[in-house]
Amino acid sequence: MANFAFGLGVGTKSAKGDWLEVYYNQPLLNASEILIKAVAGLVGYQGGNTAIELNAGQLNELKAAFVSADASEQADIADTLAGTEQPLVLTILESDSAPSSTAEVYLKLALLSHRLVKPHGLDLSGMFGLLPNVAWTSEGAIAVDELARRQLQARAQGRTISVNSVDKFPKMTDYVVPAGVRIGDASRIRLGAHVGEGTTVMHEGFINFNAGTLGVSMVEGRISAGVVVGNGSDLGGGCSTMGTLSGGGNIVISVGEGSLLGANAGLGIPLGDRCTIESGLYITAGAKVTVLDDQNNEVQTVKAADLAGKPDLLFRRNSQTGRIEVKTNKSAVELNAELHKHN
Predict the structure, then answer these.
(1) Which residues lie below 8 Å from residue 338, measured CB to CB, with a gap of 6+?
(2) Closest C-alpha to 209, from 251, 175, 162
(3) Averaged over 142-163, what is the pLDDT?
């Protein structure tokens, strides 16, 4: 029995019975056929992609099935959840196709943040229509239309509910903290971000869903939706990358390995390895760029899009003429090596 992804989750529902969010402690990618067969009969799974709601009474049987399939981590989850009154769901994805439920979306976001899948490695088509806007509060997820009543009830009991955000996405660290990372402000990293081991995200850094770093990086700027940053590359303070949701169209904006975006710089093309963009310079696809040789002589003028993915380039703005120039960058590797000594 084929399987793409598997997760036993516990979550929150609205008063109307709609899922608001689902927490998967240990999602699985390509779970064994033995495991799927062991649980299929217990929950009525007959194949396909589905989210099956459970009751706490089924957990003991599931635990035994997990043990029989040598899935000790899943058995521990079932044991920990025993007796809970919170909503439970078992999500099984036979294939990576467009999600059809909130529980399926959360499983895919968990796969990304657990680093089981890299950005752009999942079909997330139609996900926004499946994610409700939620008030993320000091007492967990609350349906927006229920928030005022819950706040009043809390006040009547001498408590105050603090609303951290109203959004479709929660912060990643409420669901997973990947190994080997430093995060200055956890609220700035959404669930579904992929934060590579060795990455430091400073307080002004931001990482959206289906985006992130693949290795060691210092992030003090914005990694927008869909943007992937290669190992050894850094984003300076206040810099920005153009995501696929905000003007980048279908072009996947990326940063190669060993590259640097200076403070307040911007990127609107795929950037190659060992490249640098000068502080304050925003490179868009249609920007005219003057190519210089090693003697600083003008060779030609091209659109920045023509330089997409090319390595060892230094983008700068001529302080006298204002034109954007590009030349071979010989110092990027040394610069990034020094930065990463202190990550």
Answers:
(1) none
(2) 175
(3) 98
Rounded to an integer, the average pLDDT of 176-191 is 97
Query: Which residues, including other chains, have CB under 8 Å from residue 153's CB and lie 6 or more apart?
Result: none
Query: CA neighbours within 13 Å on the CB side: how many for 200?
Result: 13
Q: List all residues 6 or more positions away from 104 whose beta carbon is below 8 Å from its beta carbon.
A: 49, 51, 91, 93, 130
Annotated catalytic, 21?
Answer: no
Query: Beta partners for 222?
Result: 206, 240
Q: How far is CA 23 from CA 59, 149, 172, 216, in A?
A: 16, 25, 11, 27
Local structure of 234: helix, strand or coil? strand
DSSP state of 132: P
- Return the amino acid letter for 30: N
The pair of structure tokens assigned to 175 is 């669901």
Cα 174 off chain centre by: 13
Instruction: Report the first-to-last Cα separation within the chain, whole angstroms.
Output: 44
Task: Say whether pTM exceeds 0.85.
Answer: yes
* Cβ contact 259:317 at 8 Å: no
Sequence-separated contacts (24+) of 155-162 with Cβ below 8 Å = 161/137, 162/137, 162/138
Residue type, 50: T
For the chain, the C-alpha Rg in angstroms (whole number) is 23
Beta bridge pairs of residue 212: 194, 228
Per-residue pLDDT of 231-275, as tens digits, reads: 999 999 999 999 876 544 567 899 999 999 999 999 999 999 999
> What are the angstrom distances between the C-alpha of 79 and each of 56, 61, 197?
10, 10, 30
Structure tokens at 171: 């912060």
Of the residues 21, 104, 220, 278, which is catalytic? 220
Q: Which residue has the tokens 């289906």?
A: 210
Residue 106, both tokens? 């959360």
Given a contact cutoff of 8 angstroms between Cβ atoms, the answer to whether 51 and 6 are in contact is no
